[in-house]
């Protein structure tokens, strides 16, 4: 059974959103050994300048890279990534599952991702041209991965 670890920076404050995220993690456990890792994001003062943001992103990347193994297939959610429709994503996801036993899906902090994570990533994925909060982004990718498993298993869900 494949392992999929969803990683996000920062606390998920909204209870209803936490409940939905946990529900999809639970649903996914039927198809893969699924986990959710929440890493502390770096706090930046109100006078956040680019140098401070870059330093925070570097510190966050270091935290993430400590838990990402060399053998993990890393998918990052990134505004500069490749976008897919659901069927194309499912095809790509199937090839990832077939070739990798351990997958990490990483949602960065509100400031984005350090370039070291972009370089380490096997796939940079863009969900939309729109901007979402990071917990919403996590929920969206959880749902799309769940949808992909349903499609791959010829189960009713996707229309």
How would you characterize the overall build of this protein?
Helix 1 (15-28) links the parallel strand 1 and strand 2 (33-39). This protein is α/β, with parallel strands linked by helices and 159 residues long. The protein has helices at 15-28, 50-67, 86-99, 115-120, 134-152; strands at residues 3-9, 33-39, 73-82, 102-107, 123-125. It is globular and about 50 Å long. A 5-stranded parallel beta sheet has the order 2-1-4-3-5. The chain contains 5 helices and 5 strands; from the N terminus they run βαβαβαβαβα.
Q: Runs with pLDDT <50, length 5+?
A: none
Oligomer: single chain
* Terminus-to-terminus distance: 26 Å
Give the rounded overall mean pLDDT.
Answer: 94
Strand order of the largest sheet: 2-1-4-3-5
| Rg, alpha carbons | 15 Å
Shape: globular
Helix content: 40-55%
Total helical elements = 5
Element order: H for helix, E for strand: EHEHEHEHEH
Give the strand tally. 5
Taking the sheet with the most strands, its summary is: 5 strands, parallel
Structural classification: alpha/beta
Strand content: 15-25%
């Amino acid at each position: 059974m494949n392992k999929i670890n969803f990683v996000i920076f920062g606390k998920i404050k909204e209870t209803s959103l936490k409940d939905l995220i946990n529900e999809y993690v639970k649903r996914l456990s039927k198809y893969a050994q699924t986990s959710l890792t929440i890493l502390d994001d770096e706090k930046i003062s109100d006078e956040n300048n680019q140098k401070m943001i870059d330093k925070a992103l570097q510190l966050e990347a270091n935290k993430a890279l400590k838990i990402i193994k060399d053998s993990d297939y890393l998918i990052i959610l990134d505004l500069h990534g490749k976008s897919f429709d659901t069927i194309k994503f499912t095809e790509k996801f199937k090839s990832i599952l077939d070739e990798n036993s351990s997958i990490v899906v990483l949602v960065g902090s509100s400031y984005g991702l350090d370039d070291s994570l972009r370089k380490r990533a096997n796939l940079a994925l863009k969900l939309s041209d729109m901007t979402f909060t990071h917990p919403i982004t996590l929920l969206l990718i959880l749902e799309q991965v769940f949808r992909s498993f349903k499609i791959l298993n010829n189960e009713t869900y996707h229309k």
